[in-house]
Amino acid sequence: MRFQSFASGSSGNCIYAGSDTTHLLLDVGISRKRTVQSLNNIGLELRDIDGIFLTHEHSDHIQGLPMIAKQSDMPIYATRGTIAAIRQMPKFREIDPERFIPVRADEKVRVKDLTINPMTISHDAAEPVGYRILYGRKKACICTDLGCYNDYTVECLKDSDVVLLEANHDVNMLQVGPYPYPLKQRILGKFGHLSNLTSGELLSRILNGHMRGILLGHLSKENNLPELAYETVRVELMSREKEIGWHVDELPIGVASRKEASPMFEY
Ligand SMILES: [Zn+2]
Ligand SMILES: [Zn+2]
Hints:
It is a single chain. This protein is of the alpha/beta class and 267 residues long. It has a single domain (2-259), classed as Metallo-beta-lactamase, Chain A. It has 10 helices and 14 strands. The protein has helices at residues 32-41, 59-62, 65-70, 80-87, 151-157, 171-176, 181-188, 196-206, 226-238, 241-244, and strands at 2-7, 14-18, 23-28, 51-53, 76-79, 100-103, 109-111, 114-120, 129-135, 138-143, 162-166, 213-217, 253-255, 265-266. Helix 8 packs across helix 9. It is globular. Residues 10, 13, 58, 60-61, 145, 218 line the site of one zinc ion.
């Protein structure tokens, strides 16, 4: 399996996951041009993509969709709630409704040799999901845009080989930062975004011996810094080193960038 983040953050999200024969995009929140360029960099074209899976209707996850849909004919998978929300927005009306294929949390979808299993997440969108992508016994997960997690989330994410997990903000930076109060409350709320600290906590519960890559993603531009996200998660995991049975400095933790592709994980 191969997994790469093309872009991750509040300004745009697009992730590639694939096998030798199957190629998927998860969210298309960057321009068509940038999406195509990122695909070209890994030897693929838009026409090689077998399907797009959308997590939810917020613009940082779908803004590239109208142009990408226009120049290709792959199916677009999303929950019924997400599809309905997207189809209400004027600039998405041109997309042929037949191209949308509804998915439901915990119901597996097969695309050639990959299996995709959506998972419920807690976020202020119509019917948001994260995704587990399975290839044989290999598993990659994307889990961003969630205000909180529970045992179900842990259950969904455990046994992953690669995980892209949200580390959206540093709570102190957010609190003293420039955002208006209601927006701060939204981000901090149950349907908002995971802080660096909560992300570290969740991570400590899903670590396993075959984890090949941990990408902290969906970082806020205003309320976080890559080094801070990394350090906060590291310190949090360090405090649990005995419990998790890992030397934290041996963990393959990286930060997914807003602007550049992450390394390609092949496993
Ligand atoms: Zn988002
Ligand atoms: Zn969102």
